[in-house]
Design goal:
alpha/beta; Rossmann fold; 8 helices; about 15% strand; globular; Sc_DH/Rdtase_CS; NAD(P)-bd_dom_sf; oxidoreductase; SDR_fam; Short-chain dehydrogenase
Length: about 270
């Protein structure tokens, strides 16, 4: 089995790579962090997997297409689009609150949304040309969205927007793609204990370990679920809160530590 993973240098991407590392699996791992990527490769090879790595930026559409098509010349069974970033509002410079910077918002959209699409479209192209496996599938694709995509959160506007768009696109495309024998899964999870979220300066409700997240993600992807969500109570709360009038939700959200300037890292 051949499996391609972006964002493999740490966090969920590394967790998935290590969980899938075994003697009969060929892992293709990508990330923009060469040091972390090499460490993931070492861990996976120690577990018996054959591993190839590529240092690249998912925002580079041409580079991503070339890489995925080259790796899919024979077969590509599973693809996990895990590359992404998070971040919040900049520290205030005046008494007037500072909105999210334009360059920060563009970076978030380009990485979380366009970077994932740069993974998704070449993967679809490769898998459509593959023969059906014994289960009647040509391949499985999973993208990492977020429970933040269910809310309009003042503390991280572009992160919420990028994950909302990614989840909606993935779920809306899944039914059409399934007719080609390809399953498409969106993961909308809460806080996962990864190096990225450890930079947050506020309590994180519902925080789960990377191992727990990986179990949920793999189980849902292998079952061909349209959307994987966890923790359930956090997702339900976000869904219900988003039904309220925006000014009412702002009254609650804007009081939270995570919505304060510099509560999250500011890229």
């Amino acid at each position: 089995m051949k499996i391609l993973i972006t964002g493999a240098a740490s966090g969920i991407g590394r967790g998935l790579a290590c969980r899938l590392a075994r003697a009969d699996h060929h892992l293709v791992l990508g990330d923009c962090d060469p040091k972390g990527l090499n460490e993931t490769r070492r861990l996976c090879e120690n577990l018996g997997a054959t591993v190839k790595t590529r240092v690249l930026d998912t925002r580079d559409r041409e580079d991503m297409a070339e890489w995925i098509h080259a790796e899919g010349t024979i077969r590509l069974d599973m693809v996990f689009a895990c590359a992404g970033i998070t971040g919040g509002l900049p520290p205030p410079k005046t008494a007037i609150p500072t909105p999210e910077r334009e360059d920060h918002a563009r970076l978030m959209i380009e990485t979380n949304l366009l970077g994932s699409l740069n993974t998704l479209f070449p993967a679809m192209d490769v898998m459509k040309k593959q023969a059906l496996d014994p289960h009647g599938r040509r391949g499985r694709i999973c993208v990492i969205a977020s429970v933040a995509g269910f809310v309009s959160y003042p503390g991280t506007p572009s992160y919420s927007a990028s994950k909302a768009a990614l989840d909606r696109f993935t779920v809306a495309t899944a039914s059409t793609l399934e007719k080609s024998g390809i399953t498409l899964t969106s993961v909308c999870c809460g806080f996962v204990d990864t190096p990225m979220v450890r930079k947050n300066r506020f309590p994180m409700p519902g925080l789960v370990s990377t191992d727990t997240a990986v179990r949920h993600i793999l189980r849902g992807t292998l079952r061909g679920k349209r959307r994987v969500t966890f923790p359930k109570w956090l997702v339900l709360g976000a869904r219900l809160t988003d039904l309220l009038p925006p000014r009412l939700t702002e009254h609650y959200y804007c009081r939270q530590p995570s919505a304060q300037p510099h509560g999250m890292p500011d890229y």
